[in-house]
Amino acid sequence: MSVEPFDAVDVISAKRDKHPVPDDALRWMVDAFTRGYVSDAQMSSFAMAILLNGMSREEIRVMTDAMIASGERMSFDGLGKPTVDKHSTGGVGDKITLPLAPLVACFGVAVPQLSGRGLGHTGGTLDKLESIPGWRASLSNEEMFEQMRSEVGAVICAAGSGLAPADKKLYALRDVTGTVQAIPLISSSIMSKKIAEGTDALVLDVKFGSGAFMQDIDKARELARTMVQLGTDSGVHTTALLTDMGTPLGLTIGNANEVRESVEVLAGGGPADVVELTVALAREMLTLAGRPDADVEAALADGRAMDSWRGMIAAQGGDPDGALPEARETHTVTASRSGYVTRMEALPFGIGAWRLGAGRARATDAVVHAAGIDLHAKPGDRIEAGAPLFTLLADDAARFERALEAVEGAWEIADDAPETHPLVRERITA
Ligand code: URA
């Protein structure tokens, strides 16, 4: 039996007492946890010490490296085209990956979009796409590579279990020990997966506001800067946009309804905020991939992005013309007075959609693809008394009561139009 070079209690105590954790001790801690030598209780205690006392930039870098080293590193060398990925820290109605990946790919850039499923009030890209009949989220590394090399160019699929297994194990612990909300842990978790994935470039959509992880813009900025630095130090061209997640994105929250809205954007229409963010992120991605002059708006208007979407869906077994599931039950809430919608808070609407069945409470739960919320008006819109404000969608009418409780007080109608703020607030570079 080999002798372990460090003791977990010493590593935890160093962080607890605000002492620097030596590089080799930190690497050992992550490795020994992945092997099962460091227990869940010890790692949870270490995560809490990190949440309370933070980590230096160097510690975050070493932690990220150690998580990358726990699994495989993919490589897209040999594709013959640049690769660029996008990661969003998650929000309500955030379907942007769906139109974005094919839009960017139609300029000859490969997009390896490894995505997740939703947990809690934020939706998951894979859950949304699984509304499409036949579409398959699981691809082997070879299938992924081949799809990126082909004319299709974009892949949205589930991350394999080989990427950063230490993060998978640690994230599951953080989820049940109140240690998710720590910038060193969030940034090392996200960036270990993205760096291990092997993309040349990465654009981060870091959200702030009621529907985001980081409600406060200053914290979101700190998270963005930390992640941009980690990516840059690892040779991945990384930038971030700080975007407002105070209001749901677009007019749909759910799964099938978000696919429908994404297809509208790919057809040259769709809600202004979804188009604005899709275009901003596509420009950012194409700039990092060496195509700063690409006319992304033209590709949405002339059908190239739509052709690219159809190819991407079909390549993964989906029928781009297949009927999307429709909710069996609907309940529409109407405006109680005339005026301007001045507020519609993302978090309560996200929770409402989740309670209707669009999201899951446990990783093993199934989602109801037709469930969710369709909004008929957004902040800034004028509405007349009695006009529909939003519609709840579910397979079982018994779900409406708790969803209505969630959204109670989450919107406001007033005499004057609200002040408007730009959706993309800041751009963060290395
Ligand atoms: N997403 C991740 O992958 N990790 C985190 O810690 C938070 C969000």
Number of helices: 16
Total strands: 13
Could you give a short account of the major beta sheet?
Answer: 4 strands, mixed
Which architecture of the domain at 84-161 and 190-315 would the CATH scheme give at its second level? 3-Layer(aba) Sandwich
Model description:
This protein has helices spanning 8-16, 23-35, 40-53, 57-69, 97-105, 125-129, 141-149, 165-177, 183-197, 217-233, 256-266, 272-288, 296-301, 304-315, 346-358, 400-407; strands at 84-88, 111-115, 154-158, 201-208, 237-244, 252-254, 329-334, 339-344, 372-375, 382-383, 388-394, 411-414, 424-428. It has 430 residues and is of the alpha/beta class. Among the domains are: 84-161 and 190-315, Pyrimidine Nucleoside Phosphorylase, Chain A, domain 2 (3-Layer(aba) Sandwich); 329-414, Aldehyde Oxidoreductase, domain 3 (Alpha-Beta Complex). The protein has a four-stranded mixed beta sheet, sandwiched between helices. The protein has a four-stranded antiparallel beta sheet with strand order 6-9-11-7. α2 (23-35) runs parallel beside α4, α5 packs across α12 and α15 (346-358) packs antiparallel against α16 (400-407). 51% of the residues are buried. The mean pLDDT is 95. Bound molecules: uracil (URA). Uracil binds next to α9.
